[in-house]
Amino acid sequence: QLQLVESGGGLVQPGGSLRLSCAASGFTLDYYAIGWFRQAPGKERDGISCISRRGGSTNYADSVKGRFTISRDNTKNTAYLQMNSLKPEDTAIYYCAAVPLRDVVVTTCRKMRLADFGSWGQGTQVTVSS
User: Fold this and answer.
1) Fewer CB in a 10 Å sphere around the end CB: N or C, the chain?
2) What is the pLDDT of residues 53-82, one digit of tens each?
3) What is 71-90 written as a DSSP string?
4) DSSP for residue 31
C-alpha cells in the first residue's frame, strides 16, 4: 500500500526555518515525481514546489521562490522541503504528494495540479507566529 507521511511541522517565529520531510513506504520513491502543497484556513490547496524523479528539475510557486528548497534522497525514500525566512502567510497544512513516472508529462511539475498527484500524505501543520 502506497503511503506518504509528512513530518517536521510546528510553530516557528517569523524569519525562522523548518525542514519538512516526506517519507514514502510501500513503494519506491525513485519512480515518482514529488510535489509539496499547502492549504491555509479557508483557502484552496495550492502547489508550492515540485521535483522530478532524480532531482534534476524543480519548480516553485512565486510565493516561496528564493525561500524554500525542495530536495529528495531516493536512497532514504524521502523528500524534503527546506523553508527559510518564514512569514505568517506561510501558515498552512503542508502536504506532500506523488505522481508515478508513467503519468508524468512535461507540464506536471510546472503546473502542479492537484488532480495529477494520486498519492497524498496526511499533512503537517506549519504555524508562523510571534
Assistant:
1) N
2) 888 899 999 999 999 999 999 999 999 999
3) EEETTTTEEEEEE-S--GGG
4) G
